[in-house]
Amino acid sequence: MEKNGHATFLDEVASIPACDKINECIQCGVCSGSCTTAEHWEHPPRKVIAMVRAGMKDELLKSNSVWFCVSCYLCTARCPRDIKPANIMHGLESIALREGYKPPTSTTTMYRTFADSIVQYGRVYEFGMMFTYFLKTNPLAALRMLPMALSLLTHRRMPLTPKKVKGKDELNTILNKLASGGGR
Amino acid sequence: MMEPKIGVYVCHCGSNIAGTVDVEKIAEFARSLPAVVVSRDYKFMCSDPGQDLIKKDIKELGVNRVVVASCSPQMHEPTFRRAVQEGGINPYYFEMANIREHCSWVTESRKEATEKAKALVSAAVRRVYYHQPLENKEVPVHPDTLVVGGGIAGIQSALEIANSGHKVYLVEKEPSIGGHMMQLDKTFPTLDCSACILTPKMSMVGAHPLIELLTYSEIDYVSGYVGNFRVKIRKKARYVDIDKCNGCGTCMTKCPVKIDSEFDEKLSKRKAIYTPFAQAVPNVTVIDKEHCTYFLKGKCRACEKFCERNAINFQQEDEVVDLEVGNIILTTGFKLFDPTPMKEYGYGRLDNVMTSLEFERMVNSAGPTTGKILLKNGSEPKSVALIHCVGSRDEKYHAYCSRVCCMYAMKFAHLVTEHIHGVQVYEFYIDIRSFGKGYEEFYNRVQKEGTVFFRGRPGEVTDVANTAEEKGKLVVQFEDTLVGKQMRLPVDMVILCCGIEAQADAQEVAHKFNISCGKENFFTEKHPKLDPVATMTDGIFIAGCCQGPKDIPDTVAQASAAAARVLALISKGKVEIEADTAFIDEDKCSGCRVCNLLCPYNAISYIEKDKVSRINEALCKGCGTCVAGCPSAAITHRHFTNEQINAELEGILV
Q1: Min CA distance, A157 vs chain B (Å)?
Q2: Which residues of chain A does B431 touch, with a Cβ-Cβ cutoff of 8 Å?
Q3: CATH architecture of B336-500
Q4: CATH of the domain spanning B145-234+321-333+503-577
């Protein structure tokens, strides 16, 4: 029997590692009640799960929901059905990127610059990363960060030059292996 | 042994069997089998004319072994065994071939179904050849009953049995009977005062000539079997002579020690010599040895000095009583879920976050605040939040629904609204479960009274204020799932509607009585639908929350049902024990005791004197575990001998 649209999207999400219990959600809302950033979400975490089950793929992945997840894992710690909402959010991010949905936030740019910094230095080079990030998004916004940057610099918490980790070659091997096994 | 003469009867079961299996061919095939003297097919073998066929052949043709090829033995094995017995031969000279559930209903092709039916009939014929006559045993039933646990379930069971004229021993571990129901204020949905409907029953128990009350007592050891249990009960030392004390209470006023009252959920103080509450049954005090100054420091004895009846006895010791009873009802109740591990709700850390039982005591006019609903600072709350499903419907704590919380939460909403003018009550629920008689109507009533229902389980309760409005309040952070928006709601008081869980010692108790516990430690009933009061151990029944969460009406109904089951056994006066039990050939037994440990019914014991193991046939359920486990092949299972099973296999394979 041919599956209808909503079952296909649900199956796609349920097949993401550690997301297989999505069908067991009782919509109690403890995830949304616990979520530290829920006020910014167009659809709060509980509703994201309901929308996956209802097959509302386009509407969900075009919204800003999911991208505001900061991985605090409070939802996952408190979920009474152990369905791991945070994992589902990250799974949905992967699907959105893979299928070319354009995220309505700059979160992906932040992820990319962060990841690039790791690839290049084996650790985060804060000054360089933030510089690139603001260059790619909104250079004027960087002005607002200036006082904090100065404070970090004077307290020697943000070096101006990058430092590489020891064993960068081994790390590269790991990263290459990861990339070849399905991308990042 | 008389030469076996086998009669085979193939049933059509209307078209249930005959529609798929060629029944005439089967009857004809049976005639060709060894020792078969007669073979017939008939429309309905279980009907009276069908049974008469068997009886007639036994009388006229000398048939002495019977095979009926029909349905599952679950339903009609007793029917045909009775027919065979009425025909004049031993009922165990009978074997049933299941050619319906195992054949016609599950096989499409007529040819294949007929072939399979042949194999099953041939197996039954070969097996019945080796059957031996067995006698079911009867044992008398002792007319006395033991009820363990003096909550509403135990009280109900004890009264039902005693009122019918039979002796009951009611054992309670606390100093008074009453249980959790005594702690409740009102009862949903009719709002009768819990104590007002319970205390008359408690006094009836206390005064009943046929009920022997053993409070402050626990079960040490149970042995025996249905109709004939022997029980050792430990009466813990009260240090007060139960026959002399008249409950005047002078000792309680004179005692200088104050400790948290368990009955009042630690919201008030009691003395070291105390009764848990004013209406205690029996109305006799007890000395709490752990806190009594005399036991701790060797002096004080104030209670003794002031007791006019010389009832105080510091030398009292635990006393062990031996009882013989025919049946046992376990009504050991439940424990309230402790919400301390759910840090997000702040119980124990935030003032004015309380459990449901604490609230029951607070709102009770005999409770610590004489019924006033008060915050820690002594003022009345202007808003109260009730959080449902605390510890229930949560895989981290208890996966099940506790069944009573929705309703008692709504009862609380009503009581708060009634007690405090202008108060606002909020309920935070996942699903409202108001399934009982008058429950949905009560839900409606509470809505009409102005309680606001938010569908959403709160993420947290905090005292960290984000706005001026939240300052000094408890803030409930939640999603109104019907609106789809995260909200923060400042309130004065939060009541956690905690679920019901099994008693901490449920497994230990189950082990003592040789019954089993389910995954969540509630006692396992014999059948979840058709026998919810019996257990797998005959003569031991369960009622109330020890079997699973339930409300008062369900508890009372189950307790009465358990009593009815006990009374049925008492009035019959004897129980029949199935004959297909195991026995040990003592010449072959090496005394290794492997079977002693394997037996799930504790039916096998080692006889030191003879250096062999022996099976108590009254306890043996014929499961066969010991037969398979015996390294010396010394154990035989009656009606499942090697000879019989090999013959059956041979019949299927030829």
Answers
A1: 30
A2: 26
A3: 3-Layer(bba) Sandwich (3.50)
A4: 3.50.50.60
